[in-house]
Write a structure and sequence with these properties.
This protein is mainly beta. It has one domain: Metal Binding Protein, Guanine Nucleotide Exchange Factor, Chain A (Beta Complex), CATH 2.170.150.70. The chain contains 2 helices and 11 strands. The strands form 3 sheets. It has a 5-stranded antiparallel β-sheet, with no helix packed on it. It has a 3-stranded antiparallel β-sheet with strand order 1-2-5, with no helix packed on it. A 3-stranded mixed β-sheet has the order 3-10-11, with no helix packed on it. The protein is globular. Keywords: Metal-binding, Zinc.
Length: 117
């Protein structure tokens, strides 16, 4: 079981499998957040600590970025479309050895929306 937790522990997730790869996106928000995204079906991610999050939506408002209300860590993004079977968990909240085993993919989210690696 993989755990991803914010700094203060108020927001935490359990995920059965470690990510094989994570995405380093250079879009205007992801590069500022400094996150690496691990993508999962929301059905595979279990929230174990229910601390409150604040959300931020921008552009077409298709996804909501969540951050812990207590410590400010960006924890995940969720889709505003209930039919979309994808969410992003901030892999930097996982233990370093879990993250070290994952391939880092570079996404040009700023211009082409294509992986450049």
């Amino acid at each position: 079981m993989i755990v991803a937790s914010c700094h203060c522990g108020a927001v935490a997730f359990e995920i059965e499998t470690a990510p094989n790869e994570v995405t380093d996106c250079n879009c205007s928000i992801c590069r500022r957040y400094g996150v690496l995204w691990a993508y999962y079906s929301p059905t595979l991610v279990r929230r174990v600590d229910g601390g409150p999050t604040d959300t931020y939506e921008w552009d077409d408002r298709s996804i909501a970025f969540h951050r812990c209300r207590a410590c400010g860590c960006v924890t995940h993004w969720s889709s505003n479309d209930p039919a979309r079977d994808k969410m992003g968990v901030n892999a930097r909240l996982m233990e370093p050895e879990v993250l070290a085993a994952a391939r880092v993919r570079r996404l040009d989210g700023a211009v082409t929306e294509r992986y450049v690696d």
